Amino acid sequence: VADLARTLASQHDVRIKVIAPHHPGAAKCETIDGVEIERFQYTLNPAHQCLAYGNGIPDNLRQIPSAKFQVPGFLIAMAAAIWKNLDSADLIHAHWVEPAFVASIANFLTRKPLVMSVHSLNPKKSLLHKYTFSAADRVLFNSAYTMSQAHAKGYACKSEVVYQGYDDRLFGTIDRSGHLIKNVLGIPPNALLVSAVGRMIGVKGFHILAEAADAFLNDRPDVHLVFAGDGPSRPEIESIVAQSPNRARIHFAGALHRQQVAQLLADSDIFVNPGVIDPNGRAEGLGITTIEAMATGLPVIGSRVGGISETIVDQLTGILVPPGDRNALSLAISKLLDDPQMRAHMGQQGQSIAKQRFSWPSLASEIMRVYSELFSPPCKNGGGDRKFPLTLSIS
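^ that's the sequence the OP posted. Answer follows.
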């Protein structure tokens, strides 16, 4: 959301205001990279806010007992913030279904055009979702996989796929000979590095990669594996690694800032996204970290599940394997570890495709086309006809 807003503001001269949940220590209002941000406080004491951010709202609701009591205040505060800004907005762009539902209620009388971006869907059918899809003037899905889920549930909407992108100011710009993260983790600079990045939750499939690790580490003493991220699945993954004879070469970097993620990818030789379908029937909607790895110039290995297969061109930019198949995963990793020319070729192809398909300047132009189709009169860049999409975001 931040990258999209920044690109729209800087390259299309659109005034953007992002409404997002407040969190302790954050400013209530500020402007970053030309984007106005207003954060709504949803508890009397801001220090007690725990519903948003961290592991995300769904996990926070499951893991923090007090979070569920903050839901009513959260929805009321969001609706009030939207209502307060509607007069100055020409369009509402809501990210995720629940903010779009709140926006549709707050927008009931003014009827500003409503665009909804869908990043993932609950596997279960929902009347709230059904209503919100029908209320939106345009629904943008992050992948064909996510769109197919909505259609299978019978959600009627005017929809299209608009992928999400990577920060081209960061990924692919770092010197790959720096070895900064390797130094921090105690990895020799000349070691081959396999990395996996993301929240440690079931759908990411990190436990499959941990189980596959010995098969490609045993006979390759110069290879190391890094898991970067944190989350509820971390104890399970650490338990698997603790049984490995190669555990000294398997590293847990913890949750990293974006700059650190970019540095880790620059230090890496192969990126792995071992996504699976979790017990609730969820799969990865797209896989931004895979795109960021491609933009860095890495060959990528991913599961043929969810939206992951829409980011990887099998045998050209990387290798696709069946989800949950640890043997196929270890064989694919071994194949790339033993073939530096294939790694280099796939990395070059992936970097080229990432720039063509997943750069924010290109994707922002697609978003502007959607905005213009909904504006009356059509949106014009610059001058007195500049429009003001009101972007809603929760984490």
